[in-house]
Amino acid sequence: MRRLFAGLGTGALLVAATACGSSDSSVASDDASGGVTTVKVGLIPIVDVAPLYLGQEKGIFEKHGLKLEFSAAQGGAAIVPGVASGQFQFGFSNMTSLMVAQTNGVPVQAVANGIASNGEQGKDFEALMVKKGSAIKSADGLEGKKVAINTLKNINETAVRESVRKAGGDPDKVDFVELAFDQMPAALDKGQIDAAMVVEPATATIKGQGGVVIASPMVDVAPKLTVAMYFTSTQYAQKNPEVVKRFQDATAEALTYADAHPDEAREVVTTYTKIPAAVLEKVILPEWPAEANRPSIEALMKLGEADGLFKETPDLDKLLP
Questions:
Q1: pLDDT surpasses 80 at 93
Q2: Among 197, 240, 267, 303, which has the minimal tally of Cβ within 10 Å of its Cβ?
């Protein structure tokens, strides 16, 4: 069973509707005084995107002739139509959203790596969690239970389904509900949901409430899974290859810097989230490799096909850089 959770998922739908109605901002603006190109980037306000904020703060993007304007959305499924319509020049999205978009005829092109799982079961930046004292001890116990994911029929649903499957349960019996990451800790604490598929900083928040990790779904999908990437529209890439190349180079540099300076990456999260300092100290950072892990994306694609998410097999040769 899949449904929206008390209307709380409508934010993503509104963002998508707004994005689909925008078609006149596909060309980024240039700052005549310094020759810097301003590009709009659609992001989810989570730890994953810290390198872009840090790269902007450290002047990495400016060095490459770019200024980033950030816009927040609930998930990659909402960001994709924004990029395709020209509301954003670039966006951050999980790989499943990008593959779904491509097979639906949406002209998207991944241009730079985003994040990767660290591959450690029970110690990853993402987690499938239950509240303190829950009778649910493993993913197979989620049959007939409400499990929150940020967007339905997407990477987190596929990952949770794989965890349930590996634990010996039937993922078709899980009641998936859509809820924003930052609303999951309170919903779990109040018993409105039975489990939550969260990423940092929500992971640390739930742990602070006494919550327990019962699985690391991204790790269950594939070791060192490439979870998300930055992307643009194929039209923008064709018309603005130099801007895309500058974005690729700057993002790769920002990822490398963030990976080498975890304390600074952790600190910059406070500039775009409301995470308390005490929680921030306990946040598990994802890995930020400069290159995507194609075999892991292929594993994710096969699971998505098994879940019936794609109209046809995604063409990774065209989708990936």
A1: yes
A2: 267
Beta bridge partners of 266: none
Task: For residue 178, list its beta bridge partners.
Answer: 4, 149
What would you report as the CA-atom Rg of the chain, rounded to the nearest whole angstrom?
19
Partners of 37 in the β-ladder: 30, 66
Q: Which neighbouring-strand residues pair with 54? A: none
Q: Is the pLDDT of residue 19 over 70?
A: no
The reported pLDDT for the residue numbered 11 is 30
Cα separation, 120 vs 125, whole angstroms: 9
Query: pLDDT by residue (tens digit) across 63-77?
Result: 999 999 999 886 667
CA 141/CA 126 separation, integer angstroms:
19
Which neighbouring-strand residues pair with 7? Answer: none
Question: Residue 168: what residue type?
Answer: G
- Which CATH number among 3.20.20.80, 1.10.530.10, 3.40.190.10, 3.40.50.300 corresponds to the domain 126-221? 3.40.190.10
Residues 143 and 133 sit within 8 Å (Cβ to Cβ): no
User: CB under 8 Å to 34, separation ≥6 — which residues?
Assistant: none
CATH 3.40.190.10 placement within the chain: 7-118+224-319, 126-221
Task: List all residues 6 or more positions away from 184 whose beta carbon is below 8 Å from its beta carbon.
Answer: 148, 193, 196, 198, 202, 206
